[in-house]
Amino acid sequence: MPLKIAFTDIDGTLLNKERVPSEALKNSVANISNKNVPFILISSRMPSAMYHIQRDLKIENTPLICYNGGLVLVNGKPIHSTEISVPTIQEIARLNADKKIHVSLYNNDDWYVESMDYWALREENNTKVSPSLKSIENVILDWKEKGKGAHKIMCMGAKEELDVLIENLEKTHANELHLYRSKDTYVEIANKKISKLTGIQTLLKHQYPNFSLKNCIAFGDNYNDIEMLSAVETGVAVKNAKEEVLKIADATTDTNHNDGVAKALAKYFEFC
Fold it and tell me: How confident is the model at residue 126 (pLDDT cuts 50, 70, 90)?
């Protein structure tokens, strides 16, 4: 079936060495936009960490799939939201009572950290978004009162400390939480009900009812992209992707630092 819509991961897939869209990518996205092909960003990032990329690509009016499918926005408003419950956040805080692990709590466009430590500063630099300072205990109290939870919890720290945290959570919350370890020092925690694929399916159902997965092309590089790349009509891995991702992809393209997504868009949508 003809490809009518494109989805792409951001980090490790879309951005160049300077962590911004290249000129070649901007041109490719403009070309498919002229063909009325939506170009949708899908990432573990919060909305504010994606808006500036949309602006650079001149696709501000397209939907966003944030938090790996935990939050789907159309015209800036949620059409889907799945959170981690407050009791589970409390359990993670209990397991980290000695504060050896940095914990970031996210809900929609709110990002809370307890201090501007090495990890917070690093994330701030990578995402171009600044967090709010607030203790985990106070965030929990606030969210409990407002009936909120976390779209994502990011835990960062020494490998050994994260090993223990993951082991404990797998024992007690294996059926509730998805624990995604992108690096030895990073663990992203999300509700197990969501994924990038569920985000795509939700968006197609609500916003593009005439499109199916057979009309989709998607780009990725990491473990949390595997389900998405396997399900769409054309799943494309960048050359720098994890070996497991390269194995399941329908096709590969150049690395993210060498305009892989831009080149693939030109190939599949037939422009130069």
Answer: confident
Q: Percent of the chain having pLDDT more than 70?
A: 99
The predicted-structure confidence for 33-73, as pLDDT tens digits, reads as follows 999 999 999 999 999 999 999 999 999 999 999 999 999 99
Instruction: Note the pTM of the prediction, 2 decimals.
Output: 0.94
| Domain over 86-191 is classified CATH 3.40.50.300 | no
Check if CATH label 3.90.930.1 holds for domain 5-81+194-268.
no
Task: Give the domain ranges of the chain.
Answer: 5-81+194-268, 86-191
Picking from 215, 175, 220, the residue whose alpha carbon sits closest to that of residue 193 is 175
